Amino acid sequence: MNSEPIPLGKALASFDALWSPRIVTRVNDYDVRVAKVEGEHVWHAHDDTDEFFLVLDGELRIALREPDGERTVVLPRGAVFTVPRGTEHRPSAPSGAAILMFEPTGTPSVGDRHDEIPDHVDATTGHALGT
Asked: For the residues 52-63, what does the mean pLDDT come to?
């Protein structure tokens, strides 16, 4: 773990890949990840953990499949939202966004259950900065 402050702008500038989160630090058994996103992710669910999103730049939309039906939450820059464990969801950013996520170390970016993974989505548990 880095013993110096990590400027998030610098961390985001260190990579170009979309939907490919980078681990900027760890807190106990949780990863703090940043990602650049644009277009649609994949419908997926994390069976055993919630998923926290903070929008650093742009706008993120998260489609949710809930017991009462589907809905979409819209997160402008500076907004946070937590997807409850087990909830099918699909993040998207039509105009692009930069996001920060907080989730247990080893959590796959495509969840435990998911639709077919498109080529533009990186199925990963997060990459170290600089990779």
From this structure: 98
